[in-house]
Amino acid sequence: MTRTYHIATYGCQMNEHDTERIAGLLEADGMAPAGELESADVVVLNTCCIRENADNKLYAKLGDLKVLKTHNPDMQIAVGGCLAQKDRDEIRERAGHVDVVFGTHNVHRAAQLLDDARQYGPQVEVLEAAARDDAEAFPSALPARREVDYSAWVTIQVGCDNNCAFCIVPAVRGPELSRPFDDLVAEAQRLADDGVSEITLLGQNVNSYGRDLTLAARKAGEDTRVRPLFGDLLRAVGAVDGIERVRYTSPHPKDLRPETIEAMAETPSVCEHLHLPVQSGSDQVLAAMHRGYTGERYLERVNLAKATIDDLAITTDIIVGFPGETDADHRATMELVAEVGYDAAYIFIYSPRPGTEAASLANTVPHEVAVERLEELRRVVQRSSAHNHQERIGRTERVLVEGLSKRDPSQQTGRTGQYKLIHFPVTEAGPLRPGTYADVQVVDAARQYLVGELVEVVSRPKTRVRIPVVSV
Ligand code: SAH
Ligand code: SF4
Ligand code: F3S
Question: 226 CA distance to ligand 2 centroid (A)?
Fold first, then answer.
């Protein structure tokens, strides 16, 4: 009988992308997706450790799975991702029923480790970040099972060379390693040939893309005067025939160069959306975080981007309650956030991560104060996002259709170039296939989404796909 699998993914797009590869490997090994977790023979948890609640969530989930496993002893449980990379041994100590633990540089081994575990017992395989080579970092030859046919992630860089005081990522994912420029353009072309029209470039610090390649070339005595920059990559991927939309995440404000902003402005397929994590608006806090910019410098870059890129939407990440953050620091963040007028923001309460510099800082901020600051900031962002949404009313937006709305199947759902969710009624001709591009006129706006009316279909997807229900 065919064994079935279920993968639960936590954390960022890096993990979602790895999940596609794990799914591809398991299917190449003869497995099929399980309808639901409870009936799966193999459950893979692809974990995150960016904040403490991510750890707690994992152990709670593992507790639930222990109960399932007592009813079905043949069930296998594998834990991969960042928490597995970080806490390799602790996981099996705290949850002895786990069959496989694999690190972020061992994704390509997932299927083999599950086979080995059936024969020989529990397997733990976690390669040190510094010991990985390109094959482990970019297993592009691995089969991938993409969630949707028209949109794909492409990892341009793994790891991070920054040392933000609060962040565990460099310790887990290792130093920055960029994927060669030509490989990336070739992959974009392959994806386009396969029917993909939207590509999202992934990296922890995309604007430093290629720095390591240049250093390596220089060491080898090669001419490195014409070093490809991230902006060049945007232009090259954006020029691939069949690629209609290019998105990327995340740029670091200190490395956001005018060349990137120009490339965004001059490449029609690069979307008018900039996710630029600010973290704080206070210069003291930014310095303690080692972010490498001040509030003023951040605003300068945002203003340059707004002035150069037509109709730009800006989103961000903010941390409240970093150790030592005073009321005055918080006010500085409130002011900066109001001045930028963000379209959306992810606001996090600072969570100490053992092993990071900030974890040993004194002057911790009481939880209630952090919650209050988060709420205050949320209100400021809600005001600007509601205002920005209202401004869209009357405009016609190019929309990439994603499927039917879960709440109301008489509505279909898609994303505008600014990455705003938009709902519009299904017409008599029936629902549009996901991957369709359509012009939709905005007729109303809510805080989280826009409401529109179909004007016309612009292009239909090349691939044949069923119409999924999209959660909104
Ligand atoms: N490389 C990206 C961020 C990746 S982590 C960048 O530098 O832009 C995603 C977000 O998680 C960060 O932007 C930050 O806001 C948040 N984050 C990271 N570590 C955190 C911590 N210890 N506590 C709370 N939030 C954190
Ligand atoms: Fe973490 Fe900073 Fe690197 Fe982003 S840039 S992954 S926040 S260390
Ligand atoms: Fe989490 Fe790892 Fe991403 S820690 S945020 S899954 S890089």
Answer: 27
Q: What is the pTM of this model?
A: 0.93
Nearest CA to ligand 1 atom 9: 317
Q: Using alpha carbons only, give the angle 405, 316, 309 rounded to the nearest 5 degrees.
A: 90
Q: Which atom of ligand 1 is nearest to the CA of 349?
A: 24
- Give the C-alpha separation, 320 to 279, whole Å: 8
Per-residue pLDDT of the chain (472 residues), as tens digits, is 899 999 999 999 999 999 999 999 999 999 999 988 899 999 999 999 999 888 888 999 999 999 999 999 899 999 999 999 999 889 999 999 999 999 998 998 999 999 999 999 999 999 887 666 665 566 555 677 777 889 999 999 999 999 999 999 999 999 999 999 999 999 999 999 999 999 999 999 999 999 888 888 888 888 776 678 999 999 999 999 999 999 999 999 999 999 999 999 999 999 999 999 999 999 999 999 999 999 999 999 999 999 999 999 999 999 999 999 999 999 999 999 999 999 999 999 999 999 999 999 999 999 999 999 999 999 999 999 999 999 999 999 999 999 999 889 999 999 999 999 999 999 999 999 999 999 999 999 998 899 999 999 999 987 655 555 554 4
CA of 193 to the centre of ligand 2 (A): 34
Name, in order, each residue with C-beta under 8 angstroms of 163's C-beta and a sequence gap of 6 or more.
170, 290, 357
Q: If one looks up domain 396-470 in CATH, what number appears?
A: 2.40.50.140
Q: Are 166 and 322 in contact (CB under 8 A)?
A: yes
Topology, domain 275-390: Transcription Regulator spoIIAA (3.30.750)
The CATH code of domain 146-271 reads: 3.30.750.210
Burial call 170-199: b when 16+ CB within 10 Å, e when fewer: bbbbbebbbbebeebbebbeebbeebbbbb
All structural domains of the chain with their residue ranges: 4-131, 146-271, 275-390, 396-470
Crossing angle of the two packed helices 327-340 and 367-392, in degrees rounded to 10? 10
Top CATH class of 4-131 equals: alpha beta
Q: Which of the ligands is closest to the CA of residue 290? A: 2
Domains 146-271 and 275-390 fall in the same CATH topology: yes
The DSSP line for 205-265 is: SGGGTTHHHHHHHHHTT---SSPPPHHHHHHHHHTSTT--EEEEE---GGG--HHHHHHHH
